[in-house]
Write a structure and sequence with these properties.
Elements (H helix, E strand, L loop, with lengths): L9 H5 L3 H13 L2 H8 L3 H15 L4 E4 L2 E4 L1 H24 L1
Antiparallel strand pairs: 1-2
Helix pairs in contact: 2-3, 2-4, 2-5, 3-4
Length: 98
């Protein structure tokens, strides 16, 4: 992930809780709000509320329910790829320096 030509906008990011991004990645991996809730030790309604917030933030449905599975939209797959790398870098930074 290149940071060249990236204009960091703290005001835009300030309104988003990092935990919501962790929830997004968990749902993307699990393909289920209930399974993501178990992974994270939170309730399924908390996951659903977070997904609602993220849908507004990203302006996309993100996940579509088919049967008992959640299927990621094209945009959600693109977001997940970037978030996986970004969260990995954050975790690596915390592990090294915190």
């Amino acid at each position: 992930m290149s940071t060249e030509n990236y204009d960091f906008d703290p005001a835009r990011l300030r309104c988003l809780d990092l935990n919501k991004l962790v929830v997004f990645v968990a749902v993307h991996r699990a393909r289920s709000a209930s399974a993501a809730a178990r992974m994270l030790g939170v309730t399924q309604p908390a996951i659903s509320n977070t997904l609602s917030d993220l849908r507004l933030f990203f302006g996309d449905e993100l996940f579509v329910r088919r049967g008992n599975r959640l299927h990621a939209t094209t945009q959600a797959n693109a977001i997940a790829a970037l978030l996986e790398r970004s969260l990995h870098l954050l975790e690596e930074t915390f592990n090294r320096f915190a």
